[in-house]
Amino acid sequence: MSKEHNGPTHRRPDLPGMGAPHLEFNLASELQMLQQEPGWDKGHNSKTLVKYDNLRIVLIALRKDARIPDHRTEGRISIQTIRGHILVRASGRVFELPIGRLLALDHGLRHEVEALEDSAFLLSIAWPLAEGRS
After folding, report:
1. In the 8-state DSSP scheme, what is residue 31?
2. What phi, psi does 114 have (nearest 5°)?
3. How far is CA 83 from CA 10, 40, 41, 112, 118, in A?
4. Chain centroid offset of residue 130 CA
5. CB pairs under 8 A, 24+ apart, for 41-45?
6. Which of 10, 43, 74, 84 has the most CB atoms lying inside 10 A of its own CB?
C-alpha cells in the first residue's frame, strides 16, 4: 500500500533478518512500538515485518477516521484485522473487517482502507513466482 505524506518522512532501515528463514513476532509489542513513533501522530504508521523477493508482510496502524486512499498493487494481497474495525472498498463493494476478519484481493484491484476506530491490520503482498508459476 502506498502512503501519502505531507512533510518529512520517518523510515526505519531494513533490519537484518527481515528475510531470514525463520521469523517470529509479538504483534502486540510491534504495534505498541509503532504507535510510539512519530508517524502515529499523523494517524497512519506502518512497519514491514517480512521482506522476501515475492512476499511482504506489513503491520499497519490507523487512527479512527484515517484513510489509505485508492491505490493498487501488482501482487495479490490479504488484509487481516488484528485490532479495531476497518472498511475496505474494492470492486464496487464495501468489505467490513472487524477484528479477526480476513480479506484477500486478486492482483491489480484498486482499493482503499478506512478505520472506523483505532485499528491495526496485517497486509500481506504476494507477487507471482517465476514465469509459469503462481
Report:
1. H
2. -135, 135
3. 23, 15, 18, 18, 8
4. 24
5. 42/6, 44/3, 44/68
6. 84
The grid coordinates listed for 19 are: 528475510
DSSP per position, 36-48: TSGGGGGTEEEEE
Nearest of 59, 69, 70, 64 to residue 31 by alpha carbon = 59
Residue spans of the domains in the chain: they are 43-126
Per-residue pLDDT of 37-52, as tens digits, reads 987 888 899 999 999 9
Q: Percent of the chain having pLDDT more than 70?
A: 84
Q: What is the CATH number of domain 43-126?
A: 2.60.120.10
- Split at pLDDT 50, 70, 90, the class of 5 is very low
In angstroms, the CA 4 to CA 103 distance is: 23
What whole-number percentage of the chain has pLDDT above 90? 68
pLDDT of residue 16: 53
The three grid cell numbers given for residue 131, joined into one nine-digit string: 514465469
**C-alpha span between 96 and 62 (Å, rounded):** 15
CA–CA–CA angle 4, 88, 110 (5° rounding) = 65
